[in-house]
Design a protein that fits this description.
Elements lengths: L2 H16 L6 H17 L1 H12 L3 H26 L3 E3 L8 E9 L2 E5 L7 H13 L2 E5 L5 H12 L7 E3 L4 H9 L4 E5 L2 H13 L4 E4 L5 E4 L5 H13 L11 E5 H19 L15 H8 L7 E3 L3 E2 L4 E2 L2 E4 L16 E7 L2 H9 L6 E5 L3 H10 L4 E4 L20 E2 L5 H6 L1 E9 L14 H11 L1
Parallel strand pairs: 3-4, 3-6, 4-5, 6-7, 8-9, 8-15, 9-14, 13-14, 15-16
Antiparallel strand pairs: 1-2, 2-18, 7-17, 10-13, 11-12
Helix pairs in contact: 2-4, 2-5, 3-4, 3-6, 4-5, 9-10
């Protein structure tokens, strides 16, 4: 799609939005039902595409991609009519006789830019949120997830008119052209580096945005933690999608007395889950491309490997790897790893571990493994993060009843479930005044008596 085509598509979407069709909740519900039926129809094709792009098993593809999206749709289908109703607001006496309320209205034309790590779900979940709010959508998936993007285009573009919903593919240059145009809302998921460019572009037209980013997500394992369970849940969350998850643990801070036990339990989990050679496992994903495989390889210091360490750039394979006490000034401790490499660092005092987290940019997720409520609350009080899990990792992301999003460099804005509907809507306040009474006190000329009256009403 060239620049002129993009301009014309934006004009068509603007015209379609102003036709008022998307304001009808019944129209939105029908669109969501159509998307749900399309997901079921194309599920096998999507599973094949996700296997080609990321080496995902059908179980993982359903749990983290198609199934999660259907769960979101079902929640919205059950609740949208109630969410979209006008809400009463209190009317102060000074406005007598009047009533106040607000209603959720769509922004208009929404641009969604999604990444490659969950190429279906991270495009479709915000898209159905935008649909539920009554917007028109132009969505741009990542060019790296080639096979999934192809299925997405076939699935959506044949079912919906482009003036309503359109999936657009293309290179970095296409992204540049997209951001040059004016939208009513931009929803971006990706790296912090690209997000700064998106935010800068949006600022030129004062376009509201959501930025769903990533960061160095820490896990704290205290002395009183259930170590066996912690090892399983940390590694399950870390190795999901081959470690290419914005919510995956990026490093573990474990009490020094429990470090050896945690590592041994991690080794047991790896052997039980993926066998002697994870490369042969049907359940272990691949890295998206050779460039990222090479990037992850550079994080691995051979002298620090506890287990794993094998990398095959041509096959896009990085073995599950545990790194012992990496130097804190190395890139592995400053950059988001986004792969199956996990640094483990011991600490002797909980305040020391907390300070290490506080000294770094606010993470998207923070994980605590502890059976002590005092330790749990101490960590919660002294840290900030986009989301937080206690004795668990990652699964908060698939709970549509919780808002998901970051803070600081890990992002801004919240979505999932009702929070997606609210993100892609704005609250339009309405005050409706009666014509029965028109109190003259507000009109000039103003006297001292009028000032006393207005003081009384304001109080």
């Amino acid at each position: 799609m060239n620049k002129q085509d993009l301009i014309e598509l934006n004009q068509k979407q603007e015209k379609f939005f102003h036709s008022g069709k998307t304001l009808d909740v019944r129209f939105r519900l029908e669109s969501l039902r159509t998307i749900k039926s399309l997901i079921n129809k194309y599920e096998n094709k999507l599973f094949e595409a996700l296997r080609e792009d990321l080496g995902k098993s059908p179980f993982e593809s359903y749990a983290s991609e198609t199934g999660m999206t259907i769960q979101e749709i079902n929640l919205i289908l059950r609740n949208l009519k109630r969410w979209a109703r006008p809400r009463k607001a209190y009317t102060p006496l000074v406005h007598f006789i009047a009533k106040s309320y607000y209603q959720y209205e769509p922004f208009g034309r929404v641009l969604i830019i999604s990444p490659w790590n969950y190429p279906f779900q991270l495009l479709m979940v915000p898209l159905i949120g935008a649909v539920s709010a009554g917007n028109c959508i132009l969505a741009k998936p990542s060019r790296h997830a080639v096979h999934t993007t192809t299925v997405l285009q076939e699935m959506m573009n044949e079912a919906f008119n482009p003036e309503y919903i359109h999936i657009l593919r293309g290179s970095k240059e296409v992204n540049e052209s997209l951001l040059y145009e004016k939208y009513d809302y931009i929803f971006f998921t990706g790296s912090t580096h690209v997000a700064t460019h998106v935010m800068k572009s949006a600022s030129h037209t004062l376009t509201p945005i959501s930025l769903e980013l990533g960061g160095k997500n820490p896990t704290i394992v205290t002395k009183d933690a259930n170590i066996k369970l912690a090892a399983k849940r940390i590694l399950w969350g870390k190795l999901l999608n081959g470690g290419q998850s914005c919510v995956a643990t990026d490093y573990v801070l474990v009490h020094a007395e429990m470090k050896s036990e945690l590592i041994e339990e991690m080794k047991k989990y790896l052997h039980k889950s993926y066998g002697n050679d994870p490369e042969q496992s049907e359940d272990f994903c691949r890295i998206i491309n050779k460039e990222n495989t090479e990037r992850i390889k550079n994080y691995i210091d051979p002298d620090k490997i506890i287990t794993g360490g094998k990398v095959d750039v041509e096959k896009r394979y990085v073995a599950p790897t545990i790194i012992d006490e990496p130097e804190l000034d190395k890139p592995i401790m400053h950059e988001e790893i986004f792969g199956p490499v996990l640094p483990v660092i011991g600490y002797t005092d909980l305040d020391e571990a907390i300070q290490m987290i506080v000294d770094r940019p606010k993470p998207l997720a923070l994980y605590i493994f502890s059976t002590s409520k005092n330790n749990q609350q101490k960590i919660i009080r002294k840290t900030q993060s986009g989301t937080l899990c206690i004795n668990e990792t990652v699964v908060h992301f698939i709970n549509p009843y919780l808002p998901f999003g970051g803070i600081g460099k890990s992002g801004m804005g919240r979505y999932h479930g009702k929070f997606s509907f609210e993100t892609f809507s704005y609250k339009r306040p309405v005050l409706k005044k009666s014509n029965l009474i028109d109190i003259p006190v507000r009109y000039p000329p103003y006297s001292k008596n009028k000032l006393r009256v207005i003081r009384y009403f304001v109080r």
